[in-house]
Amino acid sequence: MRYCWKGEGVDVKLNRTDYVLDWTDSALDRTDYLTLWTDYPLERTDYRLDWTDYDYNRINYD
């Protein structure tokens, strides 16, 4: 499952590149996106911890 998470992380980076391109279009939008990206790493960290717990539980059930 950790490999799946890493795969999704790659997709997130690709989407972030798209946002960077969008930032050049509008300074106001750039401010909004920066705020979203500031909060997002915390959520992704929590998501990684959730997958760690899931792997642990799966080992117990197996």
| Largest beta-sheet characterization | none
Structural class: mainly alpha
What gyration radius follows from the Cα positions, in whole Å?
16 Å
Count of distinct strands: 0
Topology readout:
Elements: H1 2-23, H2 27-61
Helix pairs in contact: 1-2
Give your account of this protein's structure.
The chain starts with a helix and ends with a helix. Helices cover 92% and strands 0% of the residues. It is built from 2 helices and no strands. The protein is mostly helical and 62 residues long. It is elongated. Helix 1 packs antiparallel against helix 2. It has one domain.
Report a brief summary of the structure.
This protein has helices spanning 2-23, 27-61.
Main traits of this protein?
62 residues, mainly alpha, disordered N terminus, 2 helices
